[in-house]
Amino acid sequence: MKTRGKGMLARGARFIALGSALAMALVAVPVAPVGAQGVPGAPSGVHVLGWGFSDVSAMAISGPDLFVADSTADMVTELDAKTRDLVRVIYGPAYGFDDPVAMVAVKGKVFVANAGRGGRPGSVTELTGTTGALVKVISGPSYRFVDPVGMVGAQGHLFVLDGGWVTELSASDGALVKVLSQAAYHFDEPTSIASDGRDVFVADGNEARGWVSVLDASNGAALRVFPEGVTVSPPQIVPVIAVGDGHVFVGGAYSGVQELDAATGKAIKALPGSFNDPVAMAVSGPHLFVADQGTGGVFELDARSGAELGFMGFTKFAVGDPAALLASGSHLFVGGSDTVAEVSTGPSFAGNALIGATTGSRYRFADPVDLAVSGRDLFVLSNVDGGSASVSEVVPSTGALVRVMSGPAYHFDIPVALALSGPYLFVANNGGGELATDVTDTGSVTEIDTTTGRVVRVITGDDADPVNSQVDQPYALAVIGKDLFVANYGNNSVAEVDIASGAVVKVLSGPKYNFSAPGRLAVSGSDLFVASEDLPYSVTELNSTTGAVVKTFPNSGVFSILANGPDLFTLSNRQNMVREINIATGKTVRVIAGPAYRFNWPWALTVAGNDLFVANNGGNSVTEVDASTGALVGVLSGPAYQFVGPKAIVASGNEVFVGSNGPSAISSMGTPGLGHSVTEFPA
After folding, report:
1. pLDDT digits (tens, 9 = 90+) for 157-168
2. Cα–Cα distance, 491 to 446 (Å, whole number)
3. Is 0.85 topped by the overall pTM?
């Protein structure tokens, strides 16, 4: 079950915690330098393109746009290669994307090779390079697509490398030309394919040796086989190949990279790079780039001399597992895992004093997932299944416990979110836990009078008809005026509830809203922003009065959102980044990412004053950023804060509260209960 936090944060701190208080100074980091271009804190000339990728497998450029294939999400993302703005996300059953592993642009078209999963046959998807529209899905027994692993275009033809053969297609209409598999080609276990525009080179190899088969790109004829080349050391290598400037470069695990003469196949030299496991290569002018998963970076070499010119690792472009390279003019695109980077060819600490600490088991903090502040009191939502979920009410100024609200009367069933309207507290129960009456439990919303701690009403869904239920696995709450808005994760809808009566005013659902597992809500004036956690990972802006769609932000990979003034901040925990979007135009203002920010599975964010605060669930820290410039202000971490898996964050006045979930009983090596806490510090 996914959970969330929301809120605001700041500096100097108090703990309301289970476990011992730790007295240390609170520290902050000064502003980090901002690169001349691209991501703040990144070197000049490096841009990190984060658009919700999960497993970048291939890239291609067609006209002004960069196309990025994602093998895990079965989709293709199209970006403007110059501005780096999102053009569109291409996905859906009609496209036939099924583990897309290779991509090539030929004559205004983009071809995507699909390897197929679970024994399904492979295929090739043909798209228009200008609109991303589907032309056709090429498949069938005659093509012999079993497990495509690579693809190139040359001389008006498309060559698709499969298990033990190459399928040649016409690039103009996708028609089958022939399947190249005869003995003359010497195919055994080919794994990589490249072209210099005239010939096609296929890297092959087995446990004994490696070789390169050369084909005539104009007619697919076998020209020659280079018997020299790759020196193989068991276990079997996976050779990769690149061609440029009359040379062929062949690389593979345990064998490094070797340079061959493209005309004769004679070995010229073994390149002395510090390679461990080369998985992709690209030639750009006089330079050879080698993506090496063993070292987690990209090597740059002089293609003529073989001299190593430089190494770019995670700290430079935030791609920790490079798997795809694309050279285009003076730009190199590096793709891997959830990131694409574009590359053109020990701070001091000062801190504030801790406010203090409050401890004790009576607070019943256990996996705090959301916080809310009303007047003098702080409400802490603890998500525990099996009837132990609770809301603890605390006076932050003294740490005094007012009450713990828990038990059957509250109908807490995997509670995930809080919202306040005057004296009334609303709790979203996602449902499906041990209290569920059946597997179709649609969840509920519990309304509590905070002056007495008593339940006002429970708004429930329809277990018998969850698709049309007004409440179905509610995952986020927001209040605008007299109405409560409920994001229904289960049936892709948003329900508007009249707070005074508890009656449902309307339910917003249907294709025009583009909801897909709506899990986050944000408010700006009278507008409501709804973030979807499933494809196409978009944010929908609604007029809360009429329910009309204002616009859709095709921003991928959103895990949490926050509206602040003219901008919308979206957080992606998979990509360790925050994107700032202008609400009026929908354009990206900046991407906030990079090692200096120390984002590590960021979970929740908020604004206090002029600063943005991000709770890092994986890093046991909070990152503070200047909301107007994107510059780093500081990273708050260390024993004094007792941050252990923080998931919730909220601000009240000049104080910030962070809820920590703590380590599991199995993995914890520290003080029992440490981390199931709330940390307070001044903004």
Report:
1. 999 998 789 999
2. 19
3. no
